Amino acid sequence: DCQHYDLRLTSTGVAVGNGDTLYYTDRAANRIYQQKWGYDNGPKLLAGSGVAWLKNGAATQATFKGPSDVAAGPDSVTKVPTVWVSDTGNNLIRKISGGVASTQVILSANSQLTSPTYLALEGSHLFVVESGKQQVVRVNVAGKGELVVISKGAPTNPTGLAVSKHGLWITDATAHTVTLVGQPTSANTAHASAKVLGSKSGYANGSAHVALFGAPSGIAVGAGGLFIADTKNNRIRQARWVSNLCGDGATCLGDFCDAKTGKCGAGSAKSVACDDGDSKTVDFCHVSVGKCVHK
Fold first, then answer.
1. What percent of the chain has pLDDT over 90?
2. Are 257 and 264 in contact (CB under 8 A)?
3. 33-89: per-residue pLDDT in tens?
4. Which residues make Cβ contacts (< 8 Å) with residue 190, sequence separation at least 6?
5. CB 3.0–4.6 Å: which of 46, 215, 247, 250 could bond 208 by disulfide?
């Protein structure tokens, strides 16, 4: 059953934390809500008095200005459950922990974020879309908040972030692409490589080389691979992969990674290692089950 609560929101961000708690923003009302899983559990105000301003302190009395997104997880130092908020109108990342809202300080050559919007959290690293600069940055939220530019200019209009074992995935609603960006090799080095799914507006399944999207926005990582909100096509798309993607670095939007060429598509035999550890001469590594399949 689906329970409906009559709370009208202008929500642009949602996150799950502590296993059974949902967090979401109300950008127009300058508030952040939380809600426990369960039929009888309704939304509860987490932070924000509703006034569009900047004030720290008790979470429900603190003020925000157009909060766009949230990320949830334990603080990497204190292990206390924490919610990070992109306070877009105030050009800040805010931290809510223990019933108190505070401001995350960014200490770097670029001392201030510009219109932070979408977030993704991995350990002590918070990935942030800076819409004002058309770039994605990584913020160390465990220490002094050092900032590293991960991607600038491409994608041109980042609209969603998700982290997997392969790296950071970024959707771009303008270029109609989903980009995989490798992690920086040092604190001051941007990514060395990027792999792209999609090339223009449209709808097509198949390998990463032929798949098409229409203004992809939200993106999430799960046991089944990537889940992409394909906005113009009114669909949720799934992208699946084998270990370390394909040999050519591509991600298959299809059933298998060609064992002969190491690329997405049909082909004949070659010795490859699949998720199940089978490295025999095979026809292909089936992405759905992560096992080698023989003709």
1. 38
2. yes
3. 999 877 667 889 999 999 999 999 999 999 999 999 999 998 878 888 999 999 999
4. 148, 149, 150, 151, 152, 184
5. 250
Cα(153)–Cα(176) distance, rounded to whole angstroms?
Answer: 14
Rounded CA-CA distance 261/268 in Å is 9
d(CA 258, CA 139): 37
Compute the mean pLDDT over every residue in the chain, rounded to the nearest whole number.
76
pLDDT tens sequence across 172-207 = 999 999 988 865 444 444 444 567 888 899 998 876
Query: What percent of the chain is modeled with pLDDT above 70?
Result: 67
227, with CB counted inside 10 A (0-12, 13-18, 19+), is: middle
Tokens of residue 286, six digits: 């089936």
Q: ∠ CA 69-137-68 to the nearest 5 degrees?
A: 15
Distance CA 264, CA 245 (A): 10
pLDDT tens for each residue of 151-180: 776 778 899 999 987 788 999 999 999 988
Distance (Å, whole) CA 156 – CA 120: 18
CA–CA dist 17, 153 (Å, integer): 31
Q: Which residues of 88-116 are buried (b: 16+ CB within 10 A; e: fewer)?
A: bbbbbbbbbbeeebebbebebeeeebebb
DSSP of 108-146: SSS-S-SSEEEEEEETTEEEEEETTTTEEEEEETTTT--
